[in-house]
Design brief:
Elements: H1 3-10, H2 18-24, E1 36-39, H3 49-64, E2 68-71, H4 85-94, E3 102-104, E4 110-111, H5 123-135, E5 139-142, H6 146-158, H7 177-185, E6 191-194, E7 203-208, E8 212-217, E9 224-226, H8 235-245, E10 250-254, H9 261-271, E11 277-281, E12 284-287, E13 293-295, H10 306-312, H11 316-327, H12 331-337, E14 358-359, H13 362-374, H14 378-392, H15 394-402, H16 404-412, H17 428-434, H18 455-469, H19 476-490, H20 496-501, H21 510-522, H22 530-551
Parallel strand pairs: 1-2, 2-3, 10-11, 12-14
Antiparallel strand pairs: 3-4, 5-6, 6-9, 7-8, 12-13
Helix pairs in contact: 1-5, 1-7, 8-9, 11-13, 14-15, 14-16, 18-19, 21-22
The chain binds one RNA strand through helix 6, strand 8, helix 8, strand 13 and helix 12.
RNA sequence: GGUCAGUUGGUGAAGUGGCUUAACACAUAGCCCUCUCAAGGCUACAUUCACGGGUUCGAACCCCGUACUGAUCACCA
């Protein structure tokens, strides 16, 4: 009984050889320096902020170098698999312009010549490599039960020894081929373990692209490579086989993977694969209610879900800008110095990635969004907000459609100037900013008058203003001069400086007068430029609103 | 317990031995401008880089130790 026999009995269905497999994955025809990266989620149906950031960085690294970005689905754990989970992931990524060059493009379809891109469909491939390992005496079947493993663990804890399946604790590694074969013939369940050639006292070094050199003891654990339940590989084994075959150049993943590097290093070595480069990314954190810093959780934190941003109407481009500022610390300054340049012109740099966990800052996102929206043209804003309204605010959507031109004019207020108005941090804010411009929404009025609240005085001001002074054709300067003239006529201060010095000489100021007009036309004491608003409202609406106020 | 990582203001961070009396941005506060608001302008906001030692003419930056935070030690990824 030889290892050859053992391999045969463990993998009777494997007839292909390694070289058969390797032939199907020819060397990629890419120039030096092109990065091949991948996003490899479990099919859970959605991506959260942390994985979106990682996917974004993977994508960016590939695009920056004219390389390849592919989407591989890691479904070796049925627990994490959700029906139609792949579609959800593809949709979430596509919402941020992250479209794979290769890999899954829908629930069932994929593109690219290095597939299948779903791990459960690659079972035979893993088995070819596992079989070869057994044949070479570098892997073996392990029949230990959960209880056996627990027992060793208890002993190790008691003796204050390192925990795990290694050295003399790796009982099944000493089984002879005959013993193993007999057990298998007996129908005993087993996993396949790596027969680790490592020594804990040896050192290995990872040259991480973001963290530099990290030293570890060599792996000596006989880790499981094929599970007994479904004969699917573990993450470690699948990672080695897939990233070798698919020729990933840089593996980008969360820092929680750093400790398993020794395993991966050994697997690549034992399998004779060239190791990819690694970039271990800092986790995305938040401060929770107790002031404790912790990993952003998709379960507990609404802002961890990409849907959160979608529902608020944060433009995808703005989110990308924010992701880039988290991804690379030098991006923000670059963006400022390049007249708000295009994301594609910025080259991401691994050495500028954060090593410590980044705190996710919603305020900062809003700030970026405000700036972003303020720089759009009114047409762009209209086009971007419309689909969002359709989904989340039907009423306003209908009005925007019905009064397209008028709406764009509303969006134009204080937009085309050196420093445009920044008052929308998301599309959701739009309603609150403009609803009063539409007659259809101008109902249930609640006037927010400030200093002047006397109805008679207000009516007097309105009558005088609109009968005698207001002319829709006036330019802004004339408009304001007339406002001041009226102030003088009514005993209000037309000059704010003078008013502040000598309040007692006046009934109020030009500010009070404009507030009266502003509130009676919009109900709100805070609005954008009043001159623009009156002009847009037009004579007819103004008249109607005066009457509306008087009736009130 | 073993292994590994991280630690610069409220936040993201720049910084890799002298140009740092620590950049820039967000947030916050005050003032100015001003028809409201937003914007804008100005100003304030870490005498100090987790702590303790050491190396050096000189340290946030190099070395050693300690502390704290996090990750990991599954037939989960």
């Amino acid at each position: 009984m030889t290892q050859e026999d053992l391999a045969e009995i463990m993998f009777p269905d494997v007839s292909e050889t390694i070289s058969d497999i390797e032939k199907k994955y020819p060397k990629r025809n890419l120039d030096e320096g092109c990065e091949v990266t991948r996003f490899a989620p479990s099919p859970t149906g959605f991506v959260h902020m942390g994985s979106l950031l990682s996917a974004f960085e993977d994508f960016k690294a590939a695009k920056d170098t004219n390389g390849i970005f592919y989407l591989r689905i890691e479904d070796t754990d049925s627990e994490r698999t959700v029906e139609n989970g792949i579609e959800g992931i593809i949709r979430d990524l596509a919402n941020f312009d992250i479209v794979p060059d290769e890999g899954m493009i829908s629930e069932k379809e994929s593109i690219g010549a290095y597939g299948p891109y779903i791990q459960s469909q690659r079972k035979n491939i893993y088995h070819v490599y596992a079989k070869d390992l057994v044949r070479r005496g570098l892997a073996y079947p392990c029949f230990c039960s959960k209880e056996d493993l627990d027992e060793t663990r208890t002993i190790q804890e008691l003796n204050k020894e390192r925990i795990g399946y290694y050295g003399s604790y790796a009982k099944c590694r000493c089984l002879t081929c005959k013993e193993a074969i007999d057990k298998i013939k007996n129908g005993e369940k087993y996993v396949v373990r790596l027969k680790s050639p490592g020594n804990f006292n040896n050192k290995i070094i990872l040259d991480d692209r973001v963290r530099g050199k990290i030293e570890f003891p060599e792996n000596d654990q006989d880790i499981v490579i094929i599970k007994s339940t479904d004969q699917l590989p573990t993450y470690h084994f699948a990672h080695a086989v897939d990233d070798h075959l698919m020729q990933t150049t840089t593996v980008m993943r969360g820092e929680e993977w750093i400790p398993s590097y020794p395993i991966h290093h050994q697997l690549f070595e034992v399998l004779g694969f060239k190791e990819p480069r690694y970039a271990h990314l800092g986790l995305v954190m938040k401060i929770d209610e107790n002031g404790v810093r912790r990993k952003l959780s998709k379960r507990k934190d609404p802002e961890a879900s990409v849907n959160f941003y979608h529902e608020k109407g944060i433009p995808m481009e703005a989110t990308k800008l924010y992701l880039m500022t988290i991804a690379n610390s030098n991006f923000e300054e670059w963006f400022l110095n390049n007249q708000h340049g295009k994301l594609s012109d910025f080259k991401m740099d691994f050495s500028k990635m954060s090593e410590s966990g980044t705190l996710f800052d919603v305020e900062k996102l809003y700030n970026i969004t405000k700036n972003y929206i303020s720089r759009m043209t009114s047409e762009e804003l209209y086009d971007a907000a419309l689909p969002w309204m359709k989904e989340y605010d039907c009423e306003l959507y209908e009005l925007m459609l019905k009064y397209e031109d008028y709406t764009k004019k509303i969006f134009s207020i204080e937009r085309y100037q050196d420093k445009p108005r920044k008052d929308y941090s998301c599309f959701k804010d739009i309603r609150n900013g403009i609803w009063y411009m539409y007659d259809e929404l101008y109902t249930n009025l609640n006037y927010e008058f400030q200093n002047i609240t006397d109805k008679q005085e207000i009516e007097k001001i309105l009558t005088l203003y609109f009968d005698k002074y207001y002319d829709i054709n006036d330019d802004k300067e004339t408009w304001f001069n007339k406002m001041k003239m009226m102030c003088d006529e009514l005993g209000y201060a037309s000059n704010m400086k003078d008013y502040k010095k000598n309040k007692e000489n006046y009934k109020g100021s030009v500010a009070d007068i404009s507030t009266v007009i502003r509130v009676s036309m919009t109900t709100k004491s805070i609005t954008p430029d009043l001159y623009e608003i009156l002009k847009l409202l037009g004579k007819e609406r103004i008249q109607k609103r005066i009457s509306r106020f008087k009736e009130n």
